[in-house]
Structures are given as C-alpha cells and as structure tokens.
C-alpha cells in the first residue's frame, strides 16, 4: 500500500517552427508536461516572442477597458465550455476586432460627453433666463426700455462729459454655489463697490458630464457702468470659472430665447438618448463574446510564454524544448503532439529523445477532485522528494479523524455533514459561479475534507456520547442507583441532608460489571465529577492515538529506506528510532492499558499513578512509598528500557555524521587521483552518499559518481525513439 | 443493564470493523482508485476500532463512581431499573 510520486522522464522535443505553436497548444490542453527554461540567462525582454506577448497584453488592456465600461450596465455572458486554443492567424483577427471596438466605444463616449456638456449649458441658460426674468419682473419700477435709452432722469444731475454717461450694462451667468461668496467679495473689492450683484440659487442640481456627479449652481446678474468695469468683471468671472451667457436685454428677446433654448434642449435630449442606445448596443454585442475573447487571449499569451522557454535552432528551422512528464503518459503526449502537427498542417513529425540526467525530477502526484484537497494539505507542510512515499492517502482518513476526536459531537457533526453534502451535491452549479469571496472559496475547495470530518465527528460524537452536549442512553447505563439504597448506607434522610453523593462501584450491583457497549456511559453526563473521569479518559486516549500514529509514521520511513536501498539509514536511523519510541512511549502505552485492565475499585486506594511512575522511571527513583509498583519486577524492566533507550540516542545521532564524513573525504581523495574507472566500490559510495543530500545540484560534479556511469551514458545519450 | 455482558459488544465491533478493513477491500472494483480506496478502508477500520476499544477499556474497571445531585439520585431511583 505504498504510494509514491510518479516516475518522470526528461525528454528533448524537436518541433518544426510552424508546428511548434499548435503542438504547445495541444500539450497545454493536456496539462501533463512541465517545460524546462532553456533560456535562463536571457532577459525576458530579449526573448524571441516578446512582441507577441506584448500584443497579447495590449489586447488584455482593451478587454479590461471593455469590462470596465460594461461593469454596471450589461451582464457578461459566460459559457460552460472553454473555447479552443486559437491559431496564430486568429490573433490578428482578434486584434482588428478589438481595436475597432475600442475606437468605436471611445468615440461614442466622447460624443456622449460633448452632448452632455451642451445639454448642461443649455439647461443653465434656460434657468438663467428664467431667473433674470423673475428678477426683472420684481423690479416693476423699471420701465421696459430702461437700458436702451439714456435715462435722463438719473443722469441729469451730473453735467459731466458725455463719456461718463455710459449705459448701464449687465452680465448674467452661472457659478458653483461654493464659490459664490468669495466671488461676491472679490467683485466688491475689485470694483470698489460700484457694481450691483444679485444672485439666486438654482433649484435643480445639474449633472456634470465628466465626473457624473451632481453640482449645485447659482445664477447671478451683475450690473455695472462703464467699459473698464466690464473688463474687470469679465476677468473675475473667468477666474472663478463662472460661465457667462449672453442675455438679451429686452423681455421679448428673452422670451424668444427661452423658446429657442427649449426646442434645442428637446432636440439634444433625443440625440443623447440615441447616442446612449448606440453605445449600449455596442457594449451588448461585445458582452456576448467578451469572456471567450478573454480566455483566447490568455491561451495565446501562455503559449508564447512557453515558446519563450525553448531554444530556437533557426538554421535547422527547428524548436528545441526540454520537458518533464510522467512515464505512463507517454502515449497521450505522443497523440497530442500528432494532433498538433496535423492541426498546423505541417508534415514533419515532432521527435522525442530521452535525456539521461542527474537532475532531480519533479515530484508529481496524480490527484482527482477528491484527493486534491488532501494532497494540498500535505504539500503545504512540504513537497516530498522524487519517488518518496506520499503520505496523502493516509492523511485522507487520519486528518479528519483527528479533527473528529477533537470535535466529538454527533449533533454538530450532523450539521457539518449536512453543509458538506449540500456543497458536494451542488458542486457543478457552485463551481460555475466563480465567486471571488475568499472565505467561501476556502470552504468550497475543502468540501470533501469537511464531508469526512462531519462523518467522523458523528462517530466520535456517539463514542463520547455527546449530542449537542447531551448524552443519549441507547443501551441502558451500567450504573445503578437502587443498590446504593439497598446494599449501602443511603436512605431518604441521607439524601435530604447531602446535596451531592457519590456512587461507589465497590458496592455490589451499583456497577453492573459490564461497561456501556458503545462509548461513554450516559450517567457521566449528569455527574458532577464528570470531568475527573473524562479528563483522565481523554488524555489517555490522546496519548494512545498519538503514539500509534507516530509509530506508523516511523514505519513508513522504513519503506522509503528500503526503496532507495539505503541500508545505512535503516541501521543507523530507523532501528534506533524504533527502539527509542517503543521503549519509552510504547511502554507508556502498555502501562495505560495494563492499568485499565488489572486495577479495579477494590484496590483503588493503592492504584498507582502512571505519570509519577513515568517520571520516576527516568530519575531511577524506586523509593517512593506513596506509589506502589504496577506489577512485579517493574524496577528491572523499566531500568532496562530506559538504558536501552538512552543507548539509542547516540546511536541515532552520532554515528551517521562520521560515516558520511568518511565517505566524503574518500570521494575527495578520488577526485585528486588520476581518473581510474571505478568498480563497484565507487557505485556503492555514490549510492550511499548521493541520496542523503537532498540538494542534487551540487553533487553533479562528483567525478567518482560519474566514473561508474560514464560508459553507459555514452551509449544511452542519443537513444532516440525515432520518428513515429 | 448492558446486555450480553462484555463479550457481545467486543465480538460485534471486532467483526464489523474486521469486515470493513479486511473483507471490503477485496470487493472494491478494479480501477485507478482501488489503491486509495483500500488504504482509506483499512486506515478507517483501524482508527475507529482503536477508538472504540479505548472507550470500552477505560470503563471496564472504574476506580471511582459518578457523583450525583440528590435530586438526580431521587429521580433515577424511581425511573431507572
């Protein structure tokens, strides 16, 4: 039952340049191949397909822009199936389509903005005209032609030169509400109080076309006399970004203007609605294809990234790639390459050549949707070395089981199981939603883990006899109350006097002699000293389960040593480990079970404490009068075990480094001697020393290691599987 | 009133988990997942059986009894056999 990572082989792939793209695409769909980076020392901006990658990225930029535009307005349609990988010439089509779409959309946006700006100005003008109309009407004392003629009445008093008798002019405009007060103040100061300002608030807030926010504005009208003041007012208005509108002086003209403005506003509204619907139509058409385009662009980009990792042998029109893949999938990969070749329309078949290497192959554990979650948990602690035993299959059960030992409530376990079952049965629908909520994704990707945790929690819940913190009495308790009355000292009077009384298992009949058949007796749940019993039980149970698992783990390491034929590890590592763990913790396990079986209430006064015994064992202290021995000859047995375990420690820790050092020095000496072909002695050295070093890279220069293999290497290097 | 004494529960549970861990693996249909399923069955049987065994061993020879409220005692005296 040993599960190891799969056997991998390193192969060189020779592809025709035209076929390279399609073959890489097919391999990508298969997902079984890892490409080695053959251009490690080349800058990513100097690689061959950098331009294609750039083009893909600009396409992605356009797609992001479109997605932004569609964000609140249109629903993006996602289809179930992923689109096929597009051919290189499709990229050009995609580029034209997307660039045209981008240009059209930007133009539509621009138009819309301009139209909205116009609309804003016209609305302001309309309000302005209305307000000035109101203003002029309130001043009923002013005759209609107040401004057109010289008001001789007013000006008669001044017999100054005609230049001074200038007309009273006015400026009307609109300004943001926040700027009104400083505007007024500056106007007052700059014109030395010689202007007259009237302003009112505009009732309706207007929409700013650029920021799409609402702004509040005020309508103002300034009366002044003279050209210089007019210039000053004009400059101040420009400075405060107040928009000035030409307002006709006579009321009739104003009325005509209002009508004209109203008509223009209506026309503009129609045009705006039409522009908006055109824009929506564009977006809607794009939304249908947006997701597909996104996937296509991602695939193209990925292919070019991979092609960047390969060597281009331009003289021979050939692309060279080095790939790792599992040996068992050779057939599938060859089929995929053949498909790629056919799709690209080239005639020369790709060539696969096996490469012998000392590099450490990647660790590949094949998983399905159920085992993937558990493999992830194990990999989080550390990915195993090549062909080491994979602990994940055992973890599938032990991880949820240990969770359940800690959780242990069948009611809450059932709730957990219900939740997990819901997630698992609705898997397809929930996967399609592609939520971005991280917490939900964590729960959903662990749905099988939660399912198993729920099932085991129900089981351990029954054993702990805990259902929503209440016990179930299915089989009938083993503890009886009535014998305490009939065979012992209890009676009604004792009951009334004492608030709490303890059952005594020494009294016949109180404890039936047969423990509750499945789990913890329900009486403990209603007992006041429930924790005294449960704590002792749970601690001992944890120790037993823990020691069992640890021993199991050490035994698994034995399988690794046997597989890699490292006898030195078996003798110097496994055996002392087993001795240490069994002598000390295995003995603890024995003591626990022994005490459970052989001590009962009749000797409970003298029942030994395992903890004290364990501590005294290490201190070689056998003179403690309060703790009687567990069994006869305990002293001899324990002393032997402790000494044996203590011997195992230097055996485990000290011997192996010296042996490794001796091997290393021997290898160094071999390096300095003239190269003699090494016999079996060299090989065993390599076998012992090499695998103990998990970093392979540094060992590649070991000439003694190569010595034994050189002859074989020459023959095998170009062993090609030929064109098939 | 645990029926059948100690022997019945032990036999029942041992047979049950023995079947799960020893017989069922032979009945799993051949396929790519056979190895994983067999590992799961055996690990499950061992863990669960051990857990049950510890629970029953811990209660075999109790060294002290439960301490109960006098009201609880009065109720149990009348309602439990």
UniProtKB/TrEMBL annotation, chain A:
Compositional bias per record (Basic and acidic residues), positions renumbered to this chain: 697-717
Coiled-coil spans in chain: 49-125
Pfam families per UniProt: V_ATPase_I
Domain of life: Eukaryota
Family matches, as InterPro entries: V-ATPase_116kDa_su, V-type_ATPase_116kDa_su_euka
The protein's name in its UniProt record: V-type proton ATPase subunit a
Keyword list, A-Z: Coiled coil, Hydrogen ion transport, Ion transport, Membrane, Transmembrane, Transmembrane helix, Transport
Organism: Alligator sinensis (Chinese alligator)
Function: Essential component of the vacuolar proton pump (V-ATPase), a multimeric enzyme that catalyzes the translocation of protons across the membranes. Required for assembly and activity of the V-ATPase.
GO cellular component: plasma membrane; vacuolar proton-transporting V-type ATPase, V0 domain
Cellular compartment(s): Membrane
Protein topology in the membrane: Multi-pass membrane protein
One GO term of the biological process aspect: vacuolar acidification
UniProtKB/TrEMBL annotation, chain B:
UniProt-recorded Gene Ontology molecular function terms: proton-transporting ATPase activity, rotational mechanism
Pfam families with a match to the protein in the record: ATP_synt_H
One GO CC term on file: proton-transporting V-type ATPase, V0 domain
Membrane-crossing residue ranges in chain numbering: 6-28, 40-60
First-listed, main subcellular location of the protein, grouped into a coarse class: membrane
Organism domain of life: Eukaryota
Entry's family note: Belongs to the V-ATPase e1/e2 subunit family.
Subunit comment: V-ATPase is a heteromultimeric enzyme made up of two complexes: the ATP-hydrolytic V1 complex and the proton translocation V0 complex. The V1 complex consists of three catalytic AB heterodimers that form a heterohexamer, three peripheral stalks each consisting of EG heterodimers, one central rotor including subunits D and F, and the regulatory subunits C and H. The proton translocation complex V0 consists of the proton transport subunit a, a ring of proteolipid subunits c9c'', rotary subunit d, subunits e and f, and the accessory subunits ATP6AP1/Ac45 and ATP6AP2/PRR.
Protein name: V-type proton ATPase subunit
């Amino acid at each position: 039952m040993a599960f190891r990572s799969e056997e991998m082989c390193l192969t060189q792939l020779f592809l025709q340049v035209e076929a390279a793209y399609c073959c890489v695409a097919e391999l990508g769909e298969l997902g079984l191949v890892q490409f080695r980076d053959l251009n490690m020392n080349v800058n990513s901006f100097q690689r061959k397909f950098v331009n294609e990658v750039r083009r893909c990225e600009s396409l992605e930029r356009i797609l992001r822009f479109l997605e932004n535009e569609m964000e609140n307005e249109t629903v993006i349609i996602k289809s179930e199936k992923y689109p096929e990988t597009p051919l290189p010439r499709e990229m050009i089509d995609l580029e034209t389509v997307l660039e045209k779409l981008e240009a059209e959309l930007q133009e539509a946006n621009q138009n819309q903005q301009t139209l909205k700006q116009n609309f804003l100005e016209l609305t302001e003008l309309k309000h302005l005209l209305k307000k000035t109309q109101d203003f002029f009407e309130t001043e009923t004392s002013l005759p209609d032609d107040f401004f057109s003629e010289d008001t001789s009445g007013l000006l008669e008093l001044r017999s100054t030169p005609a230049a001074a008798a200038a007309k009273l002019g006015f400026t009307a405009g609109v300004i943001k509400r926040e700027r009104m007060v400083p505007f007024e103040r500056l106007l007052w100061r700059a014109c030395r109080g010689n202007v007259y300002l009237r302003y009112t608030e505009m009732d309706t807030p207007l929409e700013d076309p650029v920021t799409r926010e609402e702004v509040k504005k005020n309508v103002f009208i300034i009366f002044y006399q003279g050209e210089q003041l007019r210039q000053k007012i004009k400059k101040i208005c420009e400075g405060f970004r107040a928009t000035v509108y030409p307002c006709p002086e006579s009321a009739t003209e104003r009325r005509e203007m209002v009508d004209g403005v109203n008509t223009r506003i209506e026309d503009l509204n129609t045009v705006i609605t039409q522009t908006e619907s055109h824009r929506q139509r564009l977006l809607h058409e794009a939304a249908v294809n947006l997701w597909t385009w996104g996937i296509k662009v991602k695939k193209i980009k990925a292919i070019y990234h991979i092609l960047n990792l390969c060597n281009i042998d331009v003289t021979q029109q050939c692309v060279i790639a080095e790939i790792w893949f599992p040996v068992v999938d050779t057939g599938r990969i060859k089929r995929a390459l053949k498909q790629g070749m056919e799709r690209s329309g080239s005639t020369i078949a790709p060539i696969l050549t096996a490469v012998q290497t000392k590099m450490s192959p990647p660790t590949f554990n094949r998983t399905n949707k159920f085992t993937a979650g558990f493999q992830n948990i194990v990999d989080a602690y550390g990915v195993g070395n090549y062909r080491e035993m994979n602990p994940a299959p055992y973890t599938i059960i032990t991880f949820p089981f240990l969770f359940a030992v800690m959780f242990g409530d069948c009611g809450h376990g059932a709730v957990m199981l219900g939740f997990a079952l819901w997630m698992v049965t609705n898997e397809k629908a929930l996967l399609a939603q592609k939520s971005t909520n991280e917490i939900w994704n964590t729960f959903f990707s662990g749905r099988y883990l939660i399912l198993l945790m729920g099932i085991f929690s129900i089981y351990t819940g029954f054993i702990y006899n805990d259902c929503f913190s209440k016990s179930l009495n299915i089989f009938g308790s083993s503890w009886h109350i009535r014998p305490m009355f009939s065979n012992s000292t209890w009676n009604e009077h004792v009951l009334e006097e004492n608030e709490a009384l303890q059952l005594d298992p020494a009294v016949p009949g109180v404890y039936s002699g047969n423990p509750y058949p499945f789990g913890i007796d329900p009486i403990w749940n209603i007992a006041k000293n429930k924790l005294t019993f449960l704590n002792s039980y749970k601690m001992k149970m944890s120790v037993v389960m823990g020691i069992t698992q640890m021993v199991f783990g050490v035994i698994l390491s034995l399988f690794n040593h046997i597989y890699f034929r490292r006898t030195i590890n078996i003798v110097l590592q496994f055996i002392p480990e087993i001795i240490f763990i069994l002598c000390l913790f295995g003995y603890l396990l024995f003591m626990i079970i022994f005490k459970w079986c052989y001590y009962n209430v009749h000797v409970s006064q003298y029942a030994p404490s395992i903890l004290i015994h364990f501590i005294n064992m290490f201190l070689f202290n056998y003179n403690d009068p309060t703790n009687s021995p567990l069994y006869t000859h305990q002293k001899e047995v324990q002393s032997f075990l402790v000494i044996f375990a203590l011997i195992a420690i230097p055996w485990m820790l000290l011997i192996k480094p010296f042996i490794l050092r001796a091997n290393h020095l021997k290898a160094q000496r071999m390096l300095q001697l003239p190269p003699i072909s090494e016999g079996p002695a060299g090989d065993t050295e390599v076998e012992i020393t090499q695998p103990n070093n998990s970093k392979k890279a540094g060992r590649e220069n070991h000439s003694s290691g190569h010595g034994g293999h050189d002859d074989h290497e020459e023959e095998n290097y170009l062993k090609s599987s030929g064109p098939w | 009133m645990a029926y059948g004494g100690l022997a019945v529960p032990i036999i029942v549970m041992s047979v049950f988990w023995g079947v799960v861990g020893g017989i069922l693996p032979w009945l799993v249909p051949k396929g790519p997942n056979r190895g994983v399923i067999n590992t799961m069955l055996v690990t499950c049987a061992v863990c669960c059986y051990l857990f049950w065994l510890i629970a029953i061993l811990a209660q075999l020879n109790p060294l002290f009894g439960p301490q109960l409220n006098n009201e609880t005692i009065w109720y149990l005296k009348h309602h439990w056999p």
